[in-house]
Design a protein that fits this description.
mainly alpha, 67% helix, elongated
């Protein structure tokens, strides 16, 4: 049973009927995704948006998506999502990552990753800590910032800078 989806709906003060209306589906569909073993990614994504609970997407990826189960971080469901707290933790992680950055660059210049694999792994771990904190920040600011729009803007910048092979086309944040 996927209690997390039902709890998110109830916290959003939505009945099954209202959730179904907002998701353009029937009540049985919402009930099924709350009570069956494998919810559908499409509906989880809609629940996350409608219930204003982006962490539902992370939960789904971590627990139901074969790729996500291998690559996703632990769901940080026991952290303070206060923006100031998250930014302060991110600052600390960024300082720790910066402290090992010169070592990582030197290892890459000298193509000596195998010579000092422990140092490389330590540096890489620091970078993962930064990335994880940025994901936490995304959850934290979700109530103020349209994350989809921000990502679309970022993706456009990547295309404009030729970081991707995609043709330069206007990005739309749906």
């Amino acid at each position: 049973m996927n209690d997390i989806y039902k709890k998110a709906r109830l916290k959003a003060n939505l009945t099954l009927e209202k959730a179904a209306e907002l998701m353009h589906c029937n009540v049985r569909t919402v009930w099924a995704h709350e009570n069956e073993k494998y919810p559908d990614a499409y509906y989880v994504s809609m629940m996350a948006e409608i219930y204003n609970k982006p962490e539902l997407n992370q939960y789904y990826c971590k627990n139901h998506c074969p790729i996500g189960m291998k690559l996703r971080y632990e769901l940080l469901d026991n952290v303070d999502l206060n923006v100031t707290t998250v930014l302060s933790k991110l600052r600390v992680e960024m300082i720790e990552a910066q402290e090992v950055m010169d070592d990582l660059i030197n290892l890459s210049i000298n193509d000596s990753f195998n010579d000092d694999l422990k140092l490389f792994e330590k540096g890489f771990q620091e970078l993962l800590d930064v990335e994880h904190n940025i994901l936490t920040l995304r959850l934290s600011v979700n109530k103020w910032i349209d994350i989809k729009k921000s990502i679309a803007t970022h993706n456009k910048k990547c295309v404009d800078r030729n970081y991707t092979k995609k043709e330069k086309t206007p990005c739309k944040a749906n």
